[in-house]
Amino acid sequence: MARVFVYGTLKKGQPNYKHMINTAKGLAKFQGRGRTVEKYPLVIAGKYNIPYMLNIPGTGHHVAGEIYSVDDQMLQFLDEFEGCPDMYQRTLMRIEVVEWEGKGDTGEARAAAEGIVECFVYSTTTYPPEWVGLPYHDSYDSSGKHGLSYILRESR
Predict the structure, then answer these.
(1) Residue of 82, 96, 108, 154 marked active site
(2) Broadest EC class (predicted)?
(3) Is the pLDDT of residue 147 over 80?
(4) For the chain, which terminus, N or C, has the lower number of CB atoms within 10 Å?
(5) Bridge partners of 5?
């Protein structure tokens, strides 16, 4: 199992969460909520209003999201879904645990409950330079006050 941090449309209550709970695509078990240890710019960009975390450590905000344990099948699905490695790149980042629901008596579970875990995160280094000038968000909600509702793939 791998640990993945999602900050955009794959979170609970967001337009693509359905993929996280579709066991035909693999297993994803919610572990808790967290935020990036380092600051990153989270922007909503492109004609489909897609959330992107730009891989520019030290700029922006501590981005909030959800931590999942996923199996190899779900990780492969997420790589394809996220257009990895062209649109997004999957990299390890340090995530501060805000609320932990993960069960287990392993040292790793105890450490996670106490602070910081490493998770795969889909961020991008391949973006138009003007995206750096977009507003930065600390958390994403498709129907947030930004007014930039995400356009589902099936509606494009």
Answers:
(1) 82
(2) lyase
(3) yes
(4) C
(5) 67, 121
